[in-house]
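Attaching the record inline, Q. Sequence:
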Amino acid sequence: MPKHRPIAKKKNSTVGREPSFEGQARDLTSDGRGVVRHPDGRTCFVSGLWPGEVAEIQPVGRQGKVVLGQVVALRKPHAQRRDAPCRHHGQARDQCGGCPWMFMDYEAQCEAKWHRFEKAISGLRDGATQVDSLRSAPEELGYRNRAQFKTDGRQLGYVAGGSRRLIDIEACPILNTVTGRHLDDLRVQLPNKAWQARKGDWHTVDVDDETLLPSIDKRLPFRQGNTQQNGAMRSWLAEVISEMPVDTPVTELFSGSGNLTEVLVQQFTSVRTVESLESAVALSAERLGERVRAHCLNLYSPVAVADWVHEVADTQLLVLDPPREGLKVRDPLLHGLPRLNTIIYLSCDAATWMRDAAAVVARGFRLARITPLDLFPQTPHLEVLSVFTRG
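Structure, as predicted:
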């Protein structure tokens, strides 16, 4: 995600004083790093290096059998490389690293996402699968409607990827006008003793363009971070369901506070929604009223899902929009829905989507339609919108 990457759970070992070497990136990892062959045959992952580029690379650590490298000098840059439009962009210790692809033109970013997408679906599509072109973002900067900052009372910004280093951020070009104003308003309050935390720790500050005040140490309800592209996802869903009978038994899992439910209730007379967060369930029921039957359930508990699924055994359309972990509990769900004939799956992680899609196909479904959508420019992130039909 552009705001920051998760803190690494496993420390990388140091390489020692290995000499630098010259190498060419031949591919990209799933998190956007360049893949280079070390002279001794090992694989090396290098941040800030694009396929085809040649650079002098300094080994700086290991991750399992993989060498981690940094660019010392760029020998042959890509024709579409650019100066990143952000003073905090980069891979050095005092740089953010949250938008790892910002050094490339947006067109090149979209091409890379498309090629990775095509490779991912090659074993799942058939001759009749409708494969749509990548839906790129209308704005590559200034799109982010929310963000989460960290502060220790002296600095305020993001945590550098794979570390616990707080990077002080003066400006962030992916924030939209309102969230950017939130950042400015917060920074004028520094230093702030009330935000000071224990040594080595920090406070979290959530901002959103729909809220007037920041939220300190309390997560705001989930919301897609790109308003325009969220609208594109909703339009896609409305198109997919437009020809379905209004009395179709519909169940939506991971429904949140009703982002997709709002689209479903425009087509169907009744929608059953399931979400694990009670506050989101309550908000959805309040906003959408009688046409929604909201239920709170831990969708990552096999026992809970198995005990509940018989209540919706008549489901013919299943709509899924899970977090990055995907649909972990598949067997009780697919076994318990004998009348299910269509699955609409919106995924924010291509790897877990592939895992779940393979399981769905093994249950007798086929991939009928798939659409890649770029929700977060400047990052490797890709949203996958898919439809599976029985047989």
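The chain has a mean pLDDT of 92. The longest helix spans residues 106-121.

More tomorrow.
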